[in-house]
Amino acid sequence: MKSILEALYRGQLHPEEIIVPTHPEYRPLSRQLGTMTEKWRKELSDEMFRELEKYSDLCVSVNSLHVEAAFVHGFKLGANMIIEIMDKREELVPNEAAGVSL
Questions:
Q1: Which InterPro entries does this entry report, sorted A to Z (predicted)?
Q2: Nearest CA-CA partner of 74 in 64, 66, 62
Q3: Which residue did the predictor score with more confidence, 40 or 99?
Q4: Backbone angles phi, psi at 94, to 5 degrees
Q5: Is 40 exposed, middle or buried (0-12, 13-18, 19+ CB in 10 A)?
Q6: How many structural domains does the chain have?
Q7: Which domain holds residue 55?
Q8: How far is Cα 55 from Cα 60, in angstroms, rounded to an integer?
Q9: Residue 83 belongs to a domain
Q10: Who has the most CB within 10 Å: 52, 70, 74, 90?
Q11: pTM check: above 0.85
């Protein structure tokens, strides 16, 4: 198995393509969205439906940028937590100076 860093360097990591939400509300909401889209496709004129699709595409773009920012923020937060933990690790490991031996 390749390392994560090697896969990242080679452009082989694409988590956004394989993530499927497991929240119990995801699939019912997704089906509801599809049903509403089909309803509007039938009820609206072609021009109005194209405008609705443009609006939907803009919403998806905005949401994607927000998700990307949340991912980056979460990753940085997690990395900083690890740095903080590793920086304080000597406080967690007993040593002879403290009068404690392993």
A1: DUF6809
A2: 66
A3: 40
A4: -60, 145
A5: middle
A6: 1
A7: 4-95
A8: 9
A9: yes
A10: 52
A11: no
